[in-house]
Design brief:
Blueprint (H helix, E strand, L loop, with lengths): L1 E4 L5 H11 L24 E4 L5 E13 L5 E12 L8 H15 L6 E5 L12 E2 L2 E8 L21 E6 L4 H14 L8 H6 L12 E6 L5 E9 L4 E9 L2 H12 L6 E7 L5 H4 L7 E7 L1 E5 L2 H7 L6 E9 L4 E10 L2 E6 L6 E4 H8 L5 H6 L4 E2 L4 H9 L12
Parallel strand pairs: 4-5, 11-12, 15-18
Antiparallel strand pairs: 1-2, 2-3, 3-4, 5-14, 6-14, 7-12, 7-13, 8-9, 9-10, 10-11, 15-16, 16-17, 18-19
Length: 408
């Protein structure tokens, strides 16, 4: 078997191979793109070839940026389009592609010290060192659900908010979406960038894709857009919000009030809401907000532990010795993590460890979305003394829960 990098000339065979791996047929592209694979970077793709040169596996990566706790924005290749033909599964093809891809990420010279992905199956990617790091839920609220805030709703749904909401068609507000999303993702830990070419090619899911949507745009008191909700009304008078992007909680609340007050709607479904979002608590009836489909979203894989730990910000001071195993790459390191005034120093050490863990578990706690003590209780992480887990919880906690809603 041979694994080689792809070029632009391989796009057609790459797309055909990955669709065959998943038992699907490629859609017909619209003018200028419009499909999930429109934004593939073919200089970051891999093809696995069987004897005779027949393609049997694919893997690719997008060049994203990831916002870390503390506000740092770092390069983060987004692994995607990973598939192996049914005839060649369980023959080492996937492992070989994953190993080569991680080696290329390290060798590209782009300063990439981690990788991210969305896992099609939760049981696959842990063995390659990826751990679930952000989570998302679906929130369903009946139309007209009352808010606990006693102030009377304004006609445009913004209540006491000093801004305003305007409804536009998706094809009339592309620049607004791009600008608001970019400001949002730079302040939200766990959020990924949406490169300009994604918007230009309309690659991905709504509101990036060309599927028709209405966009409720929120503007502040000066008329500057600072939030939006992308939505459509479907069967059973259900208004589904693809995503709500807001630069602060008051903007999110104003947009939620707006969609919940939409005429000829029986219920509103918010597809991507952080698990700890306050919207349910803002309703007069807590049970009116039905939380469902809580699931993992962004998975993180660290490739350089010291660089990763010193790149993010920290909310507490302290010292931890971490013994980190990386079985997939056959690596092992013990590191002394020292945090002072929001910044960390991380160096190799021979000291006795406070915690012993797999690199996948370090990926899970890295953004602050998974408490180290949870993984200790689950048997993933070994705490060598009673104070290790509480200290790790305090150190790895983020000032704001990480959340990612970008699909790739």
């Amino acid at each position: 078997m041979e694994i080689r990098s792809t070029t632009g000339e391989d796009l057609e065979v790459f797309v055909e191979t990955v669709h065959t791996a998943f038992g699907r047929f490629p859609e017909t592209p619209v003018d200028g793109g419009g499909l999930w694979w429109s934004a593939l970077e073919m200089d970051r793709g891999l093809l696995a070839l069987a004897e005779g040169g027949r393609p049997v596996g694919t893997a690719a990566a997008h060049s994203f940026e990831l916002t870390l706790p503390g506000g740092a924005v770092v390069p983060a290749p987004g692994v995607t389009a990973v598939g192996v033909l049914p005839t060649h599964r369980r023959q080492g093809v996937l492992s070989a592609m994953m190993r080569q891809q991680l080696a290329e990420i390290r060798d590209r010279g782009r300063g990439e010290f981690l990788a991210v992905l969305l896992a099609s199956e939760a049981s696959i990617y842990g063995r390659f060192g990826y751990g679930p790091a952000t989570y998302t839920t679906r929130l369903t609220v009946p139309h007209g659900a009352a808010f606990a805030d006693p102030r009377a709703d304004r006609a445009d749904g913004t209540a006491g908010d000093s801004g305003s909401v305007e409804v536009l068609r998706r094809d009339a507000c592309g620049e607004i979406l791009e600008d608001v999303y970019d400001r949002y993702r730079r302040a939200q830990p766990g959020a990924l960038s949406r490169p300009r070419r994604w918007w230009a090619l309309r690659a991905g899911q709504p509101p990036v894709s060309p599927e028709p949507r209405y966009i409720a745009v929120h503007r502040d008191a000066d008329g500057i857009p600072d939030g939006y909700a992308s939505y459509a009304i479907g069967e059973a008078q259900t208004l589904t919000v693809d995503e709500t992007i807001a630069t602060d909680d008051s903007v999110f609340t104003a947009l939620a009030r707006f969609v919940l007050g939409h005429d000829l709607v029986s219920r509103v479904v918010f597809k991507h809401v952080p698990p700890e979002h306050p919207l349910r608590w803002q309703l007069a009836d807590l049970r009116a907000g039905d939380v469902s489909e809580e699931t993992d979203w962004l998975w993180v894989r660290l490739l350089d532990v010291p660089r990763a730990l010193t790149a993010r910000g920290w909310c507490a001071d302290g010292e931890l010795v971490l013994d980190v195993q990386d079985p997939f790459l056959g690596e092992h390191g013990r590191y002394e993590l020292t945090v002072r005034d929001g910044k960390a120093d991380c160096v190799p050490t021979d000291r006795e460890p406070d915690l012993s863990l797999d690199v996948r578990d370090l990926g899970s706690v890295y953004l602050g979305g998974t408490a180290p003590s949870t993984l200790v209780r689950a048997g993933h992480i070994r705490a060598h003394h009673p104070g290790a887990a509480p200290l790790a919880d305090a150190l790895f906690r983020a000032e704001r829960s990480p959340h990612c809603l970008h699909w790739f």
